[in-house]
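Example 432.
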Amino acid sequence: MKINIIGAGLAGIEAAFTLANRGIKVNLFEMKPKKFSEVHKSEGVAEIVCSNSLGSTKITTASGVLKKEMKVLDSVLLKIASLTKVEAGNALAVDRKMFSEIATKWVEKHPNMNLIRERVTKLNDENIWIVACGPLCDDELIGFLKENIIKGNSLHFFDAIAPIVYADSVDYSKGFWGSRYSDSRDYFNCVLAKEEYNRFYDELIKAEKVEFKEFEKNYYEACLPIEELAERGKQTLLFGPLKPVGLKFKGKAPFAVVQLRKENREGTLLGLVGFQTKLIYKEQKRVFRLIPALRDAEFAKLGSLHRNTFIDSPKLLNVFLQAKDKPNVFFAGQITGVEGYLASAVTGIYVGMNIALFLKKGNMIEPPKNTMFGGLVHYITSKEGNFQPISENFGFIDVDKVRNKKTKRLKQAQVAINNVKAWREQYESEFD
Ligand SMILES: Cc1cc2nc3c(=O)[nH]c(=O)nc-3n(C[C@H](O)[C@H](O)[C@H](O)COP(=O)(O)OP(=O)(O)OC[C@H]3O[C@@H](n4cnc5c(N)ncnc54)[C@H](O)[C@@H]3O)c2cc1C
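Predicted structure in complex with flavin-adenine dinucleotide:
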């Protein structure tokens, strides 16, 4: 039996490789290049639409732990990430173009994968489907899902994305290269003196924003636009995206710092870290050029608002991410209400593994508790009350009381990784 996967994005690709590497034929449907969402731009699969960072690699961070777990689960995207990484201190950042090119090449040459460049608008009952159409899922498919599966339970919210400038338009005399708390030179730190910060802040607060409707005011806290953060008070940015902590310029801590991170291997593009915004384009240029190093900056991409569609997974899906009312339909990726590149990708691996097991042995296994990936799946399928998107976090991993935070994180990391290893072994013994 062939499995139909809708969307060759991060979750779709992980699901496809997981199944195809276990000898199962998959049809991978991708609507690009016939149709692009408002954010997708390239023809390749596994397109990284925004920041090129896949998060921290530090084991004391949730993202670092999830990466370790995904390695245990043979994540293909992490393999591609290691081939395409650019320097970014403790973060795993990739050259987006190379990343997508390699993923496309690998998909095209896999004997069990059939990449079909078509937009899917409906699902039949005869096939197994994995709906991995992402947060910008095509409207017609959403319409079909609403009528047949979601039945009025779909939700939307909006995210804001950060601008990117051309590296050769930055004034490097107005800052320095360096990373927080380390000797690496992966970030360019644009320095602002107190009066420069005050002026920037005053103009940011006054700047014209894109108007949005009442129901769109549902921001995801980790992705708040910079101007929304600024509205919380003059000091807020100094503890957020403009924090100077851990950095020294000419022997002392600067008043405020805006960090620029390489967006591609060549280092010709630099992203403004934490500068998601919904200011109108003209205002972005005006206000962000008040940062001294960016006075003459040329913008390769301006920040914007985007919709983010996700379903009410606790009501609609069981713990296998399978539609309760349609057992031949599974969901993976951001549309399930997980948030972020890796959280999206790992659900693709999980669904792929379970479908492979189901086809071979007729059963599926629940994800492990006390892990990042299992925590995500359990959360999105069992959350009571108001359901909002969630990303990996240490709240998913329960350990005995430890006073010291770092020691606690290390312990949680160890527990999570061991649990995923044990789960993988259990899976393989059931699969054999
Ligand atoms: C603008 C934006 C910025 C984001 N920024 C970040 C960020 O900086 N960091 C982060 O961690 N996460 C970010 N995210 C969130 C999320 O991690 C990414 O969207 C991630 O790509 C989700 O993976 P996915 O596989 O679920 O969907 P996607 O990677 O979007 O893949 C879905 C694929 O399905 C295709 N498709 C859709 N409908 C159909 C159809 N009917 N038929 C066929 N194909 C279809 C699309 O063309 C697309 O290729 C961002 C999301 C958006 C929209």
